Amino acid sequence: MNYRKDRLEELIKRIVAELFLKEVKDPRIGFITITGVELNKDMSEARIGVAILGTSAEIRKSMDGVRSSSGFVQKRLGKELKIRNVPRVYFYMDNSVAQGVDMVSKIESVTKADRERHGTAMEGDGEE
Q: What percent of the chain has pLDDT over 70?
């Protein structure tokens, strides 16, 4: 059962990502990434994670567009999936991508400061 659920989640993720790339034409939706799909136990609901990059106003506007397209996405999933009951689609904002970008920038700033501190010390040692 778990194997089937995992396969279905991955298939839904691929289909939804393709739909947003090729068929959803809402001008409010900016650059988005489908980060994952979580099906509940009876596979009647699919929670789809969406990562959006941009300012808070752009993110809010894109998320409104994504949520308003849920009916279209669910209908298209029904056509693409070969299952009896199509799960109800819910979108949620996944901040993990933004947190990852923030973490990488923090690591880079610490690494740069460390290099500057050690680079200056090494140059001073080499000149003596």
A: 92
